[in-house]
Amino acid sequence: MEFSTQLLYAHDQILLALMIFVIMLGMGASLTIDDFKAVARSPRGVFIGFLSQFGLMPLIAFSIATVFNFHPAFAISLILIGCLPGGTTSNMFTYFARGSVALSISMTIASTLLALIMMPILLGFYTSGFTAQINAEMQASGTGTFVIPTGNIVSSLILVLIPVLLGMVIRRKWPDWAKTAEDTAGFVGIIVILYLVFTAFTRHGSLFLKTPVEVYIGALGLGLIGFFFGYWFSRAVGMYPLFQRAISLETGIQNGPVAFAVILLSFHEPVQSQMLWLAILYSTFIVITSSFITLVFRSRGQFDWDVYKNVTIHNRLFGKNYVTSYPQGFLTKRLINDPSQGTSPAQKRSVAQ
């Protein structure tokens, strides 16, 4: 699938860059030093999240691209999305899904910083075959050569982190402004997706029909499969339901604005428009699928969430050493030894009550 013209023009890219800046500023405005300390206090959850984020997702993306025989540019884009860190969108969905927001934020922080190291390594490992195909095509047509611009990708990630750091400074010095920036970021995120889809539709209306079915499957399936494996992987290693939901959402929801920034700053035509188009489709579908998964999690997690809130209130009222008693058979198997789900040491008991 070739693009006869650029998907986005220069002024579109400038506007998109400003929107990305606002989104990442809002992400930084939602963070504090205490959030970083929380990463150190819950290393197991963050480590499981790390394995899901940088172990499962790139492999899932590579598998989809291989099974459905993606065009190399689409394959590289999908794998790039699979290698991305999480973003504040996953934190929001985790909140509504009755998951551990603290773990979600910790995973977002850790994955954003680790992406500087992991993305170049994973892209080099998973995209080598697709890169070789594009390079061979370009050499055959006499249009040059193609390599994954590792240096540019790292530089793009560093540039994206600058507004995050600025947002943290605003949070520390001007909390009211930080709240405004945080709330604005979520709204702007939706505007970005709508703007990109509207632009593509008005200028390239036939693009939706020309896009191969497998590209739609990949853009939709990456997030859904990420949710599935993130949930069951965390469940298999014994994480509590509160954390399972957080890890599932953090695994499936990748940072779309970072994908746009990396593609625009690091890649050029003839592959840039194709890569950007798949990123737009993923970002559109992930909002829809995340909403559905969140509703499912919110419904299924009602009981363990109520128990968690109940023991939290007890410890707040009666002291951190208070142990809540429940009737025999009331708690489910996964909660019977620790109804606080790891959040209150006093509530952990070695024998079922």
From TrEMBL:
Originating organism: Alkalitalea saponilacus
GO cellular component terms attached to this protein's record: membrane
Name of the protein in its database record: Bile acid:Na+ symporter, BASS family
PANTHER family: P3 PROTEIN-RELATED, SODIUM-BILE ACID COTRANSPORTER
Keywords for this protein: Membrane, Transmembrane, Transmembrane helix
Pfam families: SBF (PF01758)
Main localization, broad class: membrane
Keyword flag NAD: no
TM stretches of this protein: 14-33, 45-68, 74-94, 101-126, 146-169, 181-201, 213-234, 246-268, 274-297
Membrane topology: Multi-pass membrane protein
Entry's localization field: Membrane
